Each structure stands twice: as structure tokens, then as C-alpha cells.
Known about the structure:
It is a single chain. The chain is mostly helical and about 190 residues long. The chain has helices at about 15-35, 40-45, 50-55, 60-80, 85-100, 100-110, 120-135, 145-165, 165-185. The protein has 2 domains: about 15-60, Homeodomain-like (Arc Repressor Mutant, subunit A, Orthogonal Bundle); about 60-185, Tetracycline Repressor, domain 2 (Orthogonal Bundle), CATH 1.10.357.10. Helix content is about 70%, strand content about 0%. The longest helix is centred in the middle third of the chain and has 21 residues, at about 60-80. The protein is elongated and about 55 Å long. Pfam families: TetR_N.
Amino acid sequence: MALSARGGNRGPAAAADNRRALLRAARRLFADKGYNVPLSAIAREAGVGQAVLYRHFPRRLDLAFAVFEENFAELESLAARTGPDAFERFFERLVELMVESVGFIEMVVGARGVVEDYDGDERLAQLLAVPLGRSQEAGRVAARVTVDDVGLALRMIYGVAATARGGAGRRADVERVRDLVLTRWRA
Length: 187
């Protein structure tokens, strides 16, 4: 009898690696195929069975929010950076994440009414305030620009991203709007 080349079941020891693989696969496939990509495709790309996926993420929404949390962690790190261009760098990365995750944004907007304790809007506003204040103090962003203005601009950019045709066209349109907004906000 031939031995299987497949490794043994590592059980709980593999849980953290499996979770990371699922999040990586979900991020890529949600961005590439949209929020409604089959969960079986995510599990397959992650190299795990669907039972493992459901053990970590019982609902599609749980998986999407976990990926979204990774985005927040990256933004928290960016918000903590100092320098006069802190806001511009933060805003540019936030817009990049929006383009990469148009499907996620749709999901989060839709989930606002479903997930009672969703606090993403407040968290984002708090994150924006720090680098915005730094760039305003450095004279790079006009003092008249508020966190609410930034939120409105992000919603406008999302509208452009969600309605654009194709990946390259979407990116070009979003960059154009981002540049228009940043130019208008300069001190």
C-alpha cells in the first residue's frame, strides 16, 4: 500500500494559518469576483475545506467583516504616522482600498441596518481626524476641511468606483476624482 503524500491533519494547530489563508483568499476573490463569489471558491483557493471556512466564519458577512477589519488595522497604522503629508498618504491609501474593495463597501453599506453594533463610520471618522489635523497644522490642507467633508468626498469617490466600467477605467476615474478633491483641499 502506497503512503499518501498529503500531510496529516494538524487540527487546532493549523487554525491561525487557515484563518490567514482564508482572509487572503477572500480579499483577492472578493476584489476580483465581487462579494457574491462562491464561498467554496474561497475555501479552495485557501487550500482548506468548506467546513474549516464555516468554523472560522459562520456567515459570508463574518468573513467580509474580518477582511474589512484588516483594512482598519492598516489604516490605524497609517493614521499613527507623523509628517506634514500624513493626511494625503492616509487618504490616498483609503481610496486605493475602496477601489480594491468596491464589493466590500457595498456590503458594509448594506450591513449598516443588519449589524446593530456596526461602528465603522465612527471609527473611520476618528482615524481621519488625526492625520487631517496634522496636515492642517502643517499648512498642507485648508483649515476649512472637516472630517464630514472627507466623508462626503469618500462617498462621491465610492459612487464613481461603483459605477465605472472595468478595472482600468475605474482606477483612472477614481484617481481623477481623488486628485480633484485633494487639489481643492490644499491650503
